[in-house]
Every structure is written in C-alpha cells, then in structure tokens.
Amino acid sequence: MKLLLAVDQSKDSKVAINLLRKFQWPAGSSLLLLHVTTIDDEKRAASTKTSKYKKSGGMGKPIPDIHAELRRVEKLLASETLKVQSIIVKGIPGQEILAAIRRKKIDLVVLGSRGLSRVSGMFMGSVSGWVLKEASCSVLVGRPTTGKAQSLSTLKLLLAIDGSPDACKAAHFLKGLTLPAQSKVLLLHVIKKQLYETEQLVNRAGKSWTEFSKLAKDLCKDRGIVGVRILKDARDALSSFPFNIEERLAKGHEASAILKVARQQKADLVVVGSKGTTGLRRILMGSVSHHVSQHAPCSVLVLRSLKKS
User: Which of 29, 76, 140, 179 could form a disulfide with 25 if both were Cys (CB 3.0 to 4.6 A apart)?
Assistant: First the structure.
C-alpha cells in the first residue's frame, strides 16, 4: 500500500500522525511525508528569522524547523512493514498534494482537516475539501476528538455501510490492517427515512440475526430486511477480526444519522465509502461523505474503489 501524509505542523495534522501510529500496515507498504512550503510560509519565515538565520542565507527557504519535524515523524511512523521518506516542495498545498498522488500512484492520502494559514491561529479547511473532492484515492481526514487523548492500544471505529462497492471496500480495507488490541468496531447501516417517518435506531446487541431481522422489518418493512442483510454481509467479511463488533440499523438522513451515532459512541474514526447505491445506482455517499468529513466530531476515512488493486 502506498500512503501519503501531508505534514504542516497544525494541530489537525498531528492528530492524523497519531492516528496512523495506531495501525500496522501491510508488509511492503510505503509512506511519503509531504510538506508544502507556501509564499505565506516564506514571508512569515522572513519576518521572524534571527540574525543568525539571515547570515546563513535562509531567505526564501522552507521554515527551518520543518526538517526536524519531518525527521521526528519519520521515526514515529517507520516500522518493519512501513518504509517512510519525506520531501519538501514549494507551491499551493492542495495542488501539490494532488500532483503527488498522481505521480506516486498513492492509495491513501492522509491530512488534517485544517491547515496552518498565514497568520498563527487562523486556518484554511479548503485544502482537505479540495483533496477529498479531487483525489482519485482514499482520503483520511484527521480531526481532534473531544475528551481525553486515546492510547495507541484503543480505537473506536464507526464503519458506515450501504452495500455499494466503495462500502464493501471499507470492510476489505480494514481486513488488511492490524488494528490496536482493544479496538471496537460499530457497523452502521442507514435507511433513508421519508418525510413523514420518524428517526429510528435498532441495536442488535445480544439478538440473533433472525430476531434482529424481524425487529428491523417491524420498523422499516422490507427496507429493514435489506439493511440487516447488508450488516450481516459486512459482519461476515470481518469474521476474522478478534475485536468487539456491534451492528446497528438506523432510519433517518444518512449523514445526520452517521454523525449522531459518532457523537454518541465517541468514535475516534468514521469510515465511509465515497459513493453509494439506492435502488438504481447513483452518487449518494459523494455528498454524504463530504458532509460527514466536514462535521464529524472525529477523524474520517473516505474510501474509494480504485482500478488497480
């Protein structure tokens, strides 16, 4: 697997780094650390550099401490299964990230939901939105969660599935990773409700699949049966997982239901497919994934099916 991590020293970028540390990647994987130096960075460096730095001819070069930061991140993430290297380029962040994805044939790009802007304390969330919209690969958007920091041995993961190829890819993607030892995975399928219907949430918790299916049918009729089948297929795909797995069926607006459950469960990571299907195949998760990535209380992984394996 080929990964790209955009490093910009923002708080959200650090969250993405820590999240990557929780996974053990498949053997032979590689990670490219990319820092994009902008004109604003150079102006900020020029206005704050010391006299010593002036004498060193640093005008117009990347902010000095980014080299140390990249070396630190390399040491944090390098492992027996993950080879790490870093590069610094000059340009527009979104444009350079997308160019690197194409050039290096990246499978997964990782970046913070917001990056540092010209003035300390100000942010621009447009880069993650731009990459999420234009990238041909899967995208992991890092965002701080509320509450205490989680240890590297735990991960609360919410996997939203709808039966589409991209949603199925999510289950296969997770099977290829080694999650933290104390991970918990919640499978969620959302049935889009009609205007006159009320929101519903059904937790399988201790019920047999037959009991779960009957309850789902009582609440959502045939759509409930289809939803349970989708959840069961996903559970079967993850049968080899040695972790606690739960299943829930919700009726409501897709994005809103995913966000609501993510908040209730205090998820560390929400995983969605970039596209979905409802009856006739159409783009569904395109808008859902974008909305979730913008408003989730945690990091979001949007998975896309690729032509290559």
Answer: 29
